[in-house]
Amino acid sequence: MTVKEALLYEKKEDKKVLCNLCNHHCLIPDGKFGICNVRQNIEGILYAHSYGNLISSNADPIEKKPIFHFLPGSTSYSIATTGCNFRCDFCQNWQISQKKEADKYGVGPFHASPEKVVENAKRYGCKSISYTYTEPTIFFEYAFEIAKLAKEEGLYNIFVTNGYMTKECLDMLAGILDAANVDLKSFSEDSYKKLCGGHLKPILDSIEYMKKLNIWVEVTTLVIPTLNDSEKELAQIASFLSGISKEIPWHISRFYPQHKMEDTPATPISTLKKAYKIGKDAGIYYVYLGNTPGEKENTVCYNCNEALIDRVGYFVKRNVIKEEKCPKCKSRIHGIWK
């Protein structure tokens, strides 16, 4: 397994190191790992075990991320390494996102250099590389090297992330990271601490800061019965997003029982439609329902309601957006279309 000295850390007394990659800010004693279980202090130097060690790679429709307003209909070469800085009870990729679980099930990595990843993306005809499936922040050194090479080869870079990275991390990605889908899992500090092992404010700060860095941002909220499905909390999320920018697409996704929440029922469609209305009432231009085939997954003009992009699952069936405008009323349709 390849290891590489980590970025964004400080050396402290007694061979301890302070990791500044994400907002856990782990103070790691010699020989120990951070919360992500892939960044290890060895003799006072922080190493990333995630570098070059892929756990998954696929050429996916970009809509699968989900990213709907960035090169719709294109494919994105999607990669991940093992590890995550959250412990979400409802994680759909827990077999690979949690290092201990991956080890238990014998899910091992395969090596691929940054050059090889970019080569594969081009070979499959992808227009972008997505750092996804697990948490891209924890394989930052690897993603950073790939992303720089990708830009040189005319490819775009996309993070699908929980948004828990530090501003220092985002500053390094400025001009290299083109788009991100951020999971805003709740608007409750208690829920974040209990179910994810993190805090709410850093995610809110990341969304706002990404917009300032001119990164195209879309947001996903997995709506889970009894956890974050109250009208009050959904309205808080919608108000927050609208307050930053009404052009941020909000993907409202249906929960299905999984991982440690197998006894929690699937989200009723009626709840998702309620959330959709809350989002539109808050002034968000683009609201979508996910994990609900045929329900509110098409793009329509926020001004005249003209149908612009028709989708079937993850695939674009029709796209009439030209020159970033609605062909009917000429309103600007926000996103990256070429």
What's the layout of helices and strands?
Blueprint: E1 4-5, E2 9-11, E3 17-19, E4 27-28, E5 39-42, E6 45-48, E7 53-61, E8 75-81, H1 94-97, H2 99-104, E9 110-111, H3 114-123, E10 128-131, H4 140-152, E11 156-161, H5 167-173, E12 179-183, H6 189-196, H7 201-212, E13 216-223, H8 231-244, E14 250-254, H9 269-281, E15 287-290, E16 299-300, E17 307-312, E18 315-319
Parallel strand pairs: 8-10, 10-11, 11-12, 12-13, 13-14, 14-15
Antiparallel strand pairs: 1-6, 2-3, 3-4, 5-6, 7-8, 7-9, 16-17, 17-18
Summarize it.
This protein is of the alpha/beta class.
Explain how this protein is built.
By secondary structure, the chain is α/β, with parallel strands linked by helices. It folds into two domains: 4-48, no CATH class; 53-297, TIM Barrel, CATH 3.20.20.70. 26% of the residues lie in helices and 24% in strands. It is built from nine helices and 18 strands. The protein has helices at residues 94-97, 99-104, 114-123, 140-152, 167-173, 189-196, 201-212, 231-244, 269-281; strands at residues 4-5, 9-11, 17-19, 27-28, 39-42, 45-48, 53-61, 75-81, 110-111, 128-131, 156-161, 179-183, 216-223, 250-254, 287-290, 299-300, 307-312, 315-319. The chain has a nine-stranded mixed sheet with strand order 9-7-8-10-11-12-13-14-15. A hairpin with a 7-residue loop joins β3 and β4. The chain is globular, with a radius of gyration of 20 Å. The two termini are 39 Å apart. The mean pLDDT is 94.
